[in-house]
Design brief:
heterodimer; A: 343 residues; alpha+beta; eight-stranded mixed sheet; four-stranded antiparallel sheet; 12 helices; globular; B: 286 residues; alpha/beta; seven-stranded mixed sheet; six-stranded antiparallel sheet; 16 strands; 30% strand
Chain lengths: 343, 286
């Protein structure tokens, strides 16, 4: 990691240069309370002072809701071709917990089998991170996700009259060298940065006792009363999955054109909360009850991947809490486990 | 073409199926057919090596993909066979296809397979319910290839009625051999049926293999497992010597789509064959 500083006076020109040189994706104000990461053509569209985005930026680009995996042509022979997207892009202004969500997906899509469709896009994605204000439902410090240790090329932190820059890759260094002027960070800069981080961490109002949830999960696992209570109001709509930066379930569907010759395989996001998720041919459903489905979601997010490769599949962004129509609150549920097992 | 999307010729991905031909179709029951499949690429077919209990993902172009267990002899590299019941959309379409038709194949998949190596120098008890005999077929064929490596072999097979009994020729062949025994039970006998009647689990108490020297492998509909396990545990079989092939929705086969998760495991990459010891630790597996 290289630690540098960028003068605020040159920031705008730096961003302008990136917008003109690259396919540039950044936060744009959508309405009063929501921003969305979209292609930016002019710096006037860019608004990095965002609080809320619905669909996580990195997931939207790397694992889009609909993605063509394979095309084929049915003739005398059947020709099958993979679809690999390989355009270079800049993702600008993504915050720490969404970078950590992406880091989880990076790990997931390269474990056991390499998912070329994901990883070829990831390799070409230049990530420039920036802090954003947390929402009231954000508990990412509890998940260790309010600070990004890796996964970005450049991370910009706005201090009083300069940006503190962390450079994690040679690619990031090259871009800075090419498009702007920057200096080494000195002791005062580090001090100011540390003070900023202390203040920043104070902004997160919600916290969870994730350790006690993890430790007590096996104990609470068979307590159907508890899970019934937690899932009582669940509509099985899957909104929590759609907004989650680490949810990765998908279906693959075969589509064929009206000419009955050209077809493709497309993956689309799926949701573990909808009843058809566990259905197999013959009509047997392995998870017909909503309490079992929600329990499985909590296990997948908060236990499975700690056991598998030492990462939570939850960064504490709090989007699922805001998106839930039934007001199911994962943070409260995590915290309720300790009480439940102690009585 | 979408902007910035390039279709690269050379690269293959985990989602790209190989083209294969249905060389032979044999109807073996009113609702089941055996499909003999050969990959178009000769080299790929020669290198298509699978272990008993593994499965492939079969694509019908324009319709979709579904997982099927391989049932043929693992030592045969000229082709492989799938026994498929006409029950879903992909299997239904397959049943309407004719010999010579082209399909897509990915696989073989599954790191959990029947432990044919560990079973050597032990007795093997195979318990199949209905279509569950299909995945066991490749294990039975493997064991018969190396028969002298194993001790006693017994197959317990339960079918709904005599008409639905699968692989009748193979069963006839096994019955004629002295070194393998088979017991079949049907739920609904017809007038000509002289064999056992009822669920196959009731045949388990009669097995007199010493449990410490025996491996049991089980494959059948999800509802059957609890009862089979109950009977095997009564006979003091060790959980680590009981292997079950679990059915789940293994949609991608490569541990990505997550539909087949059982607790912390995935049926497609950790299974689909698990020992009972593993299953007991997965809670809602059976």
């Amino acid at each position: 990691m290289l630690y540098k500083v960028l003068d605020k006076g040159v920031y705008r020109d730096f961003v302008k240069a990136l917008i003109s040189e690259y396919e540039f994706i950044g936060p744009k104000k959508k309405d009063r309370s929501v921003h969305d990461f979209v292609p930016i053509k002019d710096i006037s569209e860019l608004d990095t002072n965002y609080i809320r985005t619905t669909i996580p930026a990195a997931k939207k680009i790397l694992f889009p809701p609909n993605e063509r995996l394979v095309t084929y042509e049915i003739g005398k022979k059947i020709e099958v071709k993979p679809v690999i997207e390989s355009g270079e892009k800049i993702l600008f202004g993504i915050n720490a917990w969404d970078i950590n969500g992406m880091n989880f997906l990076d790990r997931f899509f390269t474990t056991d089998f390499i998912d070329e469709n994901y990883i070829s896009k990831r390799k070409k994605l230049i990530v420039i991170g920036m802090d954003s204000e947390p929402t009231e439902t954000n508990f990412s410090p509890s998940m260790g996700a309010e600070y990004a240790k890796d996964g970005f090329d450049i991370y910009l932190t706005e201090l009083k009259d300069k940006y503190f820059i962390r450079i994690a890759t040679a690619r990031g260094n090259e871009i800075l060298e090419k498009y702007t002027k920057f200096n080494d960070a000195i002791a005062e800069d580090f001090k100011e940065y540390n003070k900023y981080m202390d203040n920043y961490r104070m902004k997160f109002k919600m916290s969870v006792d994730i350790k006690s949830f993890y430790d007590n999960f096996e104990l609470i696992y068979g307590n159907q009363e508890f899970w019934k209570r937690v899932a009582k109001n669940c509509y099985s709509c899957g909104s929590c999955n759609l907004v989650c930066p680490t949810c990765f379930c998908f279906n693959v569907r075969d589509d064929i054109e009206l000419n009955l010759k050209d077809g493709n395989k497309t993956r689309e996001w799926d949701s573990c909360m909808i009843p058809e998720y566990g259905l197999v041919a013959g009509g047997h459903n392995f998870r017909p009850d909503k309490e079992n489905r929600l329990k499985q979601r909590y296990r997948c997010r908060l236990k499975t991947f700690i056991d598998k490769f030492g990462k939570y599949a939850c960064v504490g962004c709090g989007r699922c809490i805001e998106a839930c129509l039934a007001k199911i609150n994962i943070a409260e549920d995590i915290n309720s486990v300790k009480k439940e097992v102690s009585v | 073409m979408v902007l910035g999307v390039q279709e690269e010729e050379s690269k293959s991905t985990i989602y790209v199926p190989d083209i294969a031909k249905i060389r032979r179709i044999k109807q073996i029951s009113p609702i089941e057919k055996v499909f003999r499949i050969v990959l178009d690429d000769e080299e790929k077919q020669n290198n298509f090596k699978f272990k008993p209990g593994q499965f492939v993902e079969l694509t019908i172009f324009g319709l979709g993909e579904a997982p099927f267990s391989i049932m043929s002899n693992p030592d045969n590299h000229e082709f492989f066979e799938l026994c498929i019941r006409n029950v879903g959309s992909v299997s239904g379409a397959l049943h309407r296809m004719e010999e010579g038709a082209k399909v897509g194949i990915r696989g073989p998949f599954g790191n959990g397979y029947f432990p044919y190596d560990k079973m050597k120098n032990h007795n093997v008890l195979l318990i199949a319910g209905g279509l569950g005999l299909a995945p066991l077929m490749s294990l039975i064929k493997y064991i018969l290839n190396y028969r002298e490596d194993y001790k006693e072999i017994m197959i317990i097979y339960g079918a709904v009625n005599p008409e639905s009994i699968l692989f009748k020729n193979d069963i006839q062949y096994w019955s004629n051999r002295k070194d393998i025994s088979i017991c079949i039970s049907v739920d609904n006998p017809d007038d000509k049926w002289t064999g056992e009647i009822g669920v196959c689990t009731k045949l388990i108490p009669r097995v007199n293999f010493p449990p410490e020297d025996t491996y049991a492998v089980v494959c059948g509909p999800p509802v059957m497992y609890k009862y089979v396990v109950y009977e095997l545990e009564k006979k003091k079989f060790k959980p680590e010597n009981i292997y079950l092939s679990l059915e789940r929705r293994m949609e991608c086969g490569v541990g990505k789509c997550n539909h087949c998760h059982i607790g912390n495991k995935l049926a497609c990459i950790d299974g689909p064959v698990f020992s009972l010891w593993e299953i007991n630790n997965l809670k809602e597996a059976i």
